[in-house]
Automatic annotation (TrEMBL):
A single BP term in Gene Ontology: positive regulation of transcription by RNA polymerase I
Name recorded for this polypeptide: BP28 C-terminal domain-containing protein
Source superkingdom: Eukaryota
PANTHER family per UniProt: BAP28, HEAT REPEAT-CONTAINING PROTEIN 1
Location of the region described as Disordered in the Swiss-Prot/TrEMBL record: 651-677
Molecular-function GO term, any one: snoRNA binding
Gene3D superfamilies xref list: Leucine-rich Repeat Variant
Classification lineage: Eukaryota, Viridiplantae, Streptophyta, Embryophyta, Tracheophyta
Chain coiled-coil ranges: none
Amino acid sequence: MKNYPSEVRVAVGRFMENSGRRSGQGEMGLETLSKALDGNSDSPLPMIDSKILFSLHHPKAEVRCAALVELKTSSILKSKPGVPQRLEAIQDALLSQLHDDDLTVVQAALSLIDTLDAMDGANILQTLHSVLQRCVRIFLSGSDNTAVAGDIIVLCFEHMVARLNDSPDSSNEFATMIFPLLLIIPKTRKYNFKALEFAKKLNWAFYQNLPDSCSSEKKLEPGSISKMNQKIVDSMAVIFFMHPQESLPWLVKSSENKFFELFETCFPVLKTQWELLSSSCVMHIGETEDQWFGKLQEFFAFLAGASTNHAFREHLHYLVTNCKSSPSLLSGFFTAGVTIPIQVESLHCYAFLCAQSEDSFSLQLLAEAPSVLVPLASENQEVRSAAMNCLEGLHALCSRIDFSSKKNGNFAIWSHFLEELLSVIVQQKRLIVSDRGFLSSLLTSLISHPGHHNSLLVPRNTEQRFNESIKEKILGFILGSALKFSPYGKLVIFSLLKGIGNALVRVKDVEQLLSDLMKRCGKYFSGMDKSFQKLSKYEVDILCLLLESCATPSIDGRCIFEDHLLKALQLPRCSVEDPALILPCIAVLNKLNNQIYSEMRTEMQELLLRELVFLVGNVNGDVQYATKEALLRLEVPSSIVAKMLSQPSELDVHAAPQERRKKKKSTLKKQQDSSNRQNTLSFLGSLLDILLMKKNISNRESLIGPLFKLIKEFFSADWLHGSIASDERSIQSSSDTSETTTSKLYYILQMMMLVLEDIVLFLGNASQSKDEIFNEIDISLLLSCARSDQAGIVHGHILSLLSTIAKVVPEKFLNHMSEVLTVLGESAVTEIDSQSQRVFESVISSIVPFWLSKANNMEQVLKIFVNILPEVSAQRRLSIIIYLLRILGEQGSLASLLSLLFQSLITRKDPSQSGNSTVNSPEFMSVIEKEWEYGFAVQICEHYSSIVWLPALAVLLKHVGGGSLSRELFIELLLAMHFISQKLQDPELSMVLDSGENSDNIQGTFGEILEQIVSLLHLVDVNKKQIAVPSPVRKDLKEIMRSVLMNITKSMTPSSYFSAMIKLFGSKDQDVREKALGLLSKAMKVQDREKLKHKGGRELDIRRSRKWVQLDGSALEAFHRMCSDIVHLIDASGDNSNISLKLAAISAVEVLAYKFPTDYSIFSSCLASITMNIGSESMELSSSCLRAAGALINVLGQKALTHLPPLMENLIKISLNSSSGISGRNNNSSASCTSRDILLSVLVSLEAVVDKLGSFLNPYLEKIGELLVLHPELASGSDVKLKTKADAVRNLIAERIPVRIFDLYHLTFGC
């Protein structure tokens, strides 16, 4: 709380407000918070400290007042040993109450102020002063609290006086506080008298002679207040004149913001003294000007820079009028970059002199006219406005002077154009004052050649105002004056005229200034001559501006200042960060463009480019960036670059031409010196960086030949061994850990590979043929370099270059394919870093597509990489194959890869190869799962989502099914099914199914897998005798295949499942169709069992089960088509060979009727077909049809009425045949279907007919009765099952058939 008092007050206040809103909880909340912070709820004190503290900050004023009253009577203010912090906290809180918004709280706090003795007296006095000022303002405002405010004022006086004994030094503070209250005001006269009373008690010299206020307070006559105030002022005035030096500082402090009133009083005295001083100094100013010039500058600056400088303007005018060198004095201010007030005042004085009728200063003022351009270009609008007033004054002055009498001297140079020049500038007053940049555009248009500078702001034809001769004189006049200015003034004038380009530097004196600055800079940093001073900031800016002017195009098409530009770019080779060297270099780089470069001589172009190459390697980042930007703007001929690549040892660009010609005779191989090697490699490194950055070098492809020659030379024994030997000597002779020659050499080789790759890639995008250039590409050299690079530093770059070449000119590899693959394979085994991985992938993406375009055998490519995988580290296998699959296409290649992995595994782990001819499936699979091929197949699939690997499983099964029958194929199928079984349990697949994403694709893939497994299951059954596989293993295979089928069925939607069945029903193989029907029946039965299990189960299982109960639109459409196909199978040829297929189809219909008990229209078609087949010669087929008919009638209900006549006809017919021993029927199936089975099927069908169509059985009641009553087997009751079913039918007849249609008599008679 002590560290954050204000935060505590705010927090407590909010807490109290919130507690107060809850009725009855305010006091309880305060009590709780106090106990929590005190840490002792059983304190013997009458009030816990925190509670008092928080009460002082309560939102209600009455609570705060009550707390102060209670605090006054409490003993807690007496600090107890060991707990002084409590008193300190309470005192701090009490002091803060003196600033309370409620005056009653302030009044109560003042009654306790005596307890603050231990606190800082100055702090208390300051607080009392603040309270006093506040109450006086309240009293003067006439608000309702004036009475309380008055009482507080009196209390403040009493406490202040009481504390004078304690702190004698506080008399000064109290005197200052009470000073504003000494003069009597009618509203506050009561308290003014109190102030006088307390002031007389002070031991303060300024208050010694104050009048007595005791009697005056009681009775006041009209005018007595004025008389009293006069006496108070007179008494203090006497003291002031007796001791002005002591009194004046205190009066200024006591007056606070009333300084100007004090100034009004003192100004007449100061003015008198000032006039006396001016009259005494005028002789010295006129006679000894040189001696007083510096003093005058200081004095003028002092008065002009004062915050009340307007008060001294008259004196400043007097000063400049009586000074013979006033124009120079004034121009020295506004050309030196002084403060704004001084500039403004000096310009005002300059304008004042221009307006005088005397012409003693006229010529001086006009000669100094260019100096006014400096403030006219100021960023401050007030300065520009004052400068424009000066120019207006100068223009008016020109009209008053007769220049005809002054034909000699410098006046003759500018006298005939100055008035018109000033007129042009004054005419644009508004734009110049409002827009700082307009003046530069105006001057540039006035001085530059026609058409050289056009500005939309400048009036038309401004550049034709003066002829060329006058323009040169104007430029010379302005620059001649500017060269006498301070560096700041020079910089401003040069900045105004920089728009005229190199014409600025063509002026002889300006060019000499540029040469001098560059000479000073070079001599200073060379250290050879200590007399040269370092350039100032303004001088550096001038140097930069002049160099920028040198780097502008010339009218005659020649770069006449190319030597200056080159010299500015020649930075020392050592690290330099001084702005005097860096900034001019950057200035030239920023202005350098292709037009300037093309205007240079050829030899200078080469020298300049070499300097730019060196600057690219400069340690200064700004220099590097500006150099690169400049290079991008230049159109560098490839011939110069090729020359540099062929002769990189010519590094001394400052050597004489004849010396450089001598160096051309030396070759690269003869440079064994370590320093030369380092310099050569550094230069080449920067040059190659430029080639990588700069893409617009004309005829860049011509560099391929020189680059390959350099590669060949650098990979030679001379360079490699020489670099290693140089490094060894450097290590022995020095402990320097800088970059070695060998590392630089390898870096250069890497850069050359990158440059070649960039050029080849550019050629690939070019439209014209480059056959001649492609002949320069040496694949054999690159492969040789890759094999000889034992350190592997350049290996990756070589592969990357080969990759790019393969993309552009793949035919270059026709004779080198085996070598490339060898190098590629070696890199895959040995290089494991990420960069090598990226390069390897790049080569694959280039070489493999080219290979496929020639060989068109994806599996062969995969096989090559699968064969090398055992030699590759386990960490890299996945990344290599993943990228390879991406190039080949995951959808088409993943299945082939899995097949190859399984084949590789079978080849290595075939039991027959190990002497074990018996395959035990569980043990065999446990061994197989531990092999790297199987684990890698799992890892590959885990990398992809189910959207990728699930279709691959379907393709894998297709590959297996398309192979020739063999034992290996059987084992591969076993591996594949085991793998698929595991993958179908992948949690990611379950998540995808749950989310419903890509549902159509996944369901379609499920259907393909289902089709392939059904076909393979048939293949296993048909060829079981041809494949020598033990029956237990075959059984395990069939079980896992059926398990996979069931798992897939559970995951499939009804529409996708029905669509898959439709495809299977369309198979040419009858056995496949029959297996599909059996699978359908089994799946629907499993669905019913699963539905029972799902009750109370997972929500997902419940949703999936619901889809099979309530078919949506697509599912219902597929269901109808599937049922139509089943009906087609039932209605097919009646050959005995199709009996099993018909039975499977009828059984499927029966299962579907029970599974989907809805009166779908397709069921009516099914019932018609089945009804026709009830009378089949096959008892088994008839029995199956009867059961299916009953199931369909239960579903269709009265919609089956149209099929009732043929159905009852066949039913009665087959029931009569069963009672007569089924004479005359084909009994081929009697072994599997008895008369009892037929009769039971009849009862099942009849039960459905009676239940659903009982009201329509009147024509058939007699036959039904005969069957139920007279049939021997039913009448005997020997068969319990038959008897039970017959009783159920009889009871159902009694319930469902109305009595009105029951012909009992006819039935009895018939019986």
